[in-house]
Amino acid sequence: MSRPPAVARVLERVTATARRYEMFLPGQKVLVSVSGGPDSVCLLYSLHGLRRLLRIDLEVFHLDHRLRRDSGKDGEYVRRLAGRLTLPFHLRICEFEPKDGDSIEAWGRGMRMFYSAEVRRETGAERLAEGHTLDDQAETVLIALIRGGGIDALGGIEPTLGGEVQPLIDVRRSEVEAFCGALRLRPRRDPTNQDTRLLRNAVRLKVLPAIERSVGRDVRATLARTADTIRQDEHFLKRLALEAAEQLVEEQPDGFGIDAVGLLTVPRPIAARVVRDLMYRLEAAPTQESIEAVLDLAAGRPGRRRDLAGGLVASRDSGYVSLSRTSPESRV
């Protein structure tokens, strides 16, 4: 039986994306993260329709973040979908709450990664499939511009990152809705997605439409293509930084030592990346001020010391800039 055009279009796009980014290997078990919303429901049904072509086994994961009184209904809906498709279902209920000042989006993603990693370990799933779309990619680029992110942030959502894959990253949100409509699916609708006090919602519902009205053209695909181009440059710079780090960095008992003279001989953007990556390895969030402070120490005289963001300290001796923690409790 032939598929509705809206369904065939998405399946063709997902197949091309999966092959382009080599998302799956034959025989792999894939854990599909399903919130119950249109994007993740489309993702689940797309991968289910392509499972034989891609030669993958599917299991379904849902996390109840407990952010709404009726959030448990989302889990029951996803459970029914999994049952309809005769797929194993894994439910986790979040045991934590966001702290005051936390970004709800960032906190929610952190919780999904935490609990999905637990389920992946239990099931042996080698991939986690998420439902980010081309529209999400465009929004992410604009958010990075608003927040002042660097080139890595402007590269947007990685189609493949470790074991996480984004099969819908080339699919428009309008195509997701058409897909669900063609199959008579009724995804859950999260009312908080209409709250424009949240930055992503404001960008989605107000900023992007205003830009498109002003210029008289669709900009989402353009922003997504821009992210793709920037991401390729980011990958190249990352390789250069890793190669430089192999020559310049040595591990120390409490952190890392960086060859001060050597750090100054590499291009400054690469030197900054070396420093930034070491801060991440020390589980601190790098800031521009902290990175500049380390580079300043490398260029200056020995004997100086700087306290950095995230509980790090940098000190300059005769040959190295040492980067370490002030104490284990100083992590942020």
Cross-sheet strand order for the largest sheet: 3-2-1-4-6-5
Low-confidence stretches: 327-332
Sheet bearing the most strands, described?
6 strands, mixed
> Helix coverage percent of residues?
40-55%
Number of strands: 11
**CATH architecture group name of the largest domain:** 3-Layer(aba) Sandwich
User: What structural category arises from helix and sheet content?
Assistant: alpha/beta
The level 1 CATH classification of the largest domain is Alpha Beta
Instruction: Using the coordinates shown, work out and report the CATH topology of the largest domain.
Output: Rossmann fold
- Which assembly state applies to the chains in this document? single chain
Shape, per Cα inertia axes: elongated
The DSSP helix count reads 12
Percent strand? 5-15%
Average pLDDT metric: 94
Tell me about this structure.
The chain is an alpha/beta fold. It folds into two domains: 5-133 and 159-198, HUPs (Rossmann fold, 3-Layer(aba) Sandwich), CATH 3.40.50; 253-330, Uridine Diphospho-n-acetylenolpyruvylglucosamine Reductase, domain 3 (2-Layer Sandwich), CATH 3.30.465. It contains twelve helices and eleven strands. It has helices at residues 5-20, 38-54, 72-84, 104-123, 134-147, 151-154, 173-182, 199-215, 220-248, 260-265, 268-281, 288-299; strands at residues 29-33, 57-64, 89-93, 127-129, 160-161, 164-165, 249-252, 255-259, 305-307, 312-316, 320-325. A six-stranded mixed sheet has the order 3-2-1-4-6-5, sandwiched between helices. A five-stranded antiparallel sheet has the order 7-8-11-10-9. The model is unreliable at 327-332 (pLDDT under 50).
